[in-house]
Design goal:
about 10% strand; 3 domains; alpha/beta; single chain; disordered N terminus; 7 strands; Methyltransferase, Methionine Synthase (B12-binding Domains), Chain A, domain 1; about 45% helix; two-stranded antiparallel sheet; Multidrug-efflux Transporter Regulator, Chain: A, Domain 2
Length: about 350
């Protein structure tokens, strides 16, 4: 669910790609926002609802804003930069990945934010509950930081009631996994926080999946992470999504050898195997492990691979004909395609 140490989960996560409608590259001019920088980061946190950790990550990794510095190296932000951060927060909470949108011009962000307010047949805003100061996602992040299981469970329960099962996964748990991964990589939280979040979410999703019990004739999906990929939030996310879609899910957990994953797929006559690759992105053993898995699986079993680290192994995945999953909606649509009679994917 990046590394998930993680995503996120990016998890199967890194999920939620953003597609530009124009081939022209529009980039935010960092020099445009240097005037009247007077707000300290504490004020920015209060006004945007973002944590100081996330603001620093977006500055350092994505160049979303570039604050001025005082003589004592304190950050100072302008009103326009605060607006940018608020818009980016709303857009990421609505499902967009920060990377593709971080350096878009502010007027483009305003337009996207205005377009990202669809309502369903009941008049419910797609971003309701996610853009307020005390959003479900923010509450979840705070609970993870405090290692407060009761607070995390409560936030997830209320999100599930208001957003529904898929809304919970796509708008709360997926971005939560991505942020946990970013905070871990930035050194703001520890491995203990990631494992804590995984444990609480695993139990919560296990209970939440019971109403979606699959029929006896439903196809089977085996979900795991391969050897060396020890972060499981992404795998938990896709397992829950598949269960919501009516699949029988055999969840194996993290860091499984190819032989064991293939054995479970054969024993349960799985239609597909889903793997989450999150961290590390440079494991020299993974290519051979993936080759062993493909050789051990029946030819008719489709191999789905996603996660933040997935692009780093693209060449190996192409060799074995694995379907490369871009984000959670892509994963769900792929599962729907696999259930169609005689559906064959290009390998």
């Amino acid at each position: 669910m990046n590394s998930e140490y993680i995503g996120t989960f990016s998890c199967f996560i890194g999920f939620q790609s953003f597609h530009l409608r124009s081939s022209a590259l529009c980039v935010y001019d960092l020099s445009e926002s240097m005037d009247e920088a007077r707000h300290v980061i504490k004020s920015v946190v209060r006004r945007t609802g973002l944590t100081a950790h996330v603001i620093r990550i977006w500055e350092k990794r994505y160049q979303a804003v570039r604050p001025q510095r005082t003589g004592t190296n304190r950050r100072l932000y302008s009103d326009e930069q605060i607006e940018r951060l608020s818009l980016l927060r709303a857009l990421t909470r609505a499902g967009n990945s920060i990377g593709p949108i971080a350096r878009l011009p502010t007027d483009k962000l305003r337009k996207l934010a205005a377009e990202t307010q669809p309502t369903d047949s009941r008049g419910f805003s797609a971003t309701a509950g996610l853009t307020g100061k005390s959003s479900f996602l923010d509450e979840s992040i705070a609970a993870v930081a405090k290692l407060d299981s009761r607070a995390l469970e409560d936030a997830l329960k209320r999100a599930a009631m208001e957003l529904g099962a898929q809304g919970l996964l796509q708008r709360v748990i997926a971005p939560l996994a991505q942020i946990i991964g970013e905070l871990w990589r930035d050194g703001s939280i520890t491995a203990a926080h990631e494992h804590f979040a995984s444990a609480v979410i695993r139990v919560f999703l296990g209970h939440a999946a019971k109403p979606f019990a699959a029929s006896d004739s439903a196809p089977v999906l085996v979900v795991a992470t391969p050897v060396g990929q020890i972060h499981e939030l992404g795998a938990l996310l896709v397992g829950a999504a598949a269960s919501n879609l009516g699949w029988h899910v055999t969840y194996l957990g993290a860091s499984l050898p190819a032989a064991e994953i293939a054995g479970a797929a054969r024993q349960n006559q799985a239609r597909a195997v889903a793997l989450s690759l999150v961290y590390p992105e440079d494991d020299p053993r993974l290519e051979a492990e993936m080759l062993r898995l493909r050789d051990a699986l029946p030819r008719e079993v489709t191999l789905l691979v996603g996660g933040r680290a997935m692009p780093a192994y693209r060449e190996a995945l192409e060799k074995i004909g694995a379907l490369q999953i871009k984000d959670l909606p892509h994963f769900c649509s792929t599962l729907d395609e696999l259930r169609k009679p005689h559906k064959k994917f290009k390998r």
